[in-house]
Specification:
The protein has four helices and four strands; from the N terminus they run E-H-E-E-H-H-H-E. With 87 residues, the chain is α+β, with helices and mostly antiparallel strands. A four-stranded antiparallel beta sheet has the order 2-3-1-4.
Length: 87
């Protein structure tokens, strides 16, 4: 079953995020991930938007998404470990 990883991003140090962003695509492709959306100005139809960006990535199944999120190649670039953003 298809699985989606959705990141609601708040920039804390945008320059670090931009560096992370430039290296992201090479990592998730190795895990059969597919970028569906990355928007810094999403149109919010209901509620309030308090973040700076939304990113949606599709994986073929939960195992592949988990393998991606737990991989050393993602972890070393992850905003959670590099702290350029808050989730």
């Amino acid at each position: 079953m298809t699985v989606y990883v959705i990141a609601l991003v708040k920039f804390t140090r945008e320059e670090y995020y931009r560096r992370y962003q430039s290296r992201f695509a090479e990592v998730f492709k190795a895990f059969r991930g597919r970028l569906l959306a990355a928007d810094e100005r999403p149109k919010v139809l209901d509620g309030e938007w308090t973040r700076d960006k939304v990113v949606i990535v599709e994986f073929p199944d939960e195992a592949e998404a988990t393998r991606f999120l737990d991989s050393p190649s993602y972890q070393e670039r992850s905003p959670r470990t590099a702290s350029p953003v808050r989730r």
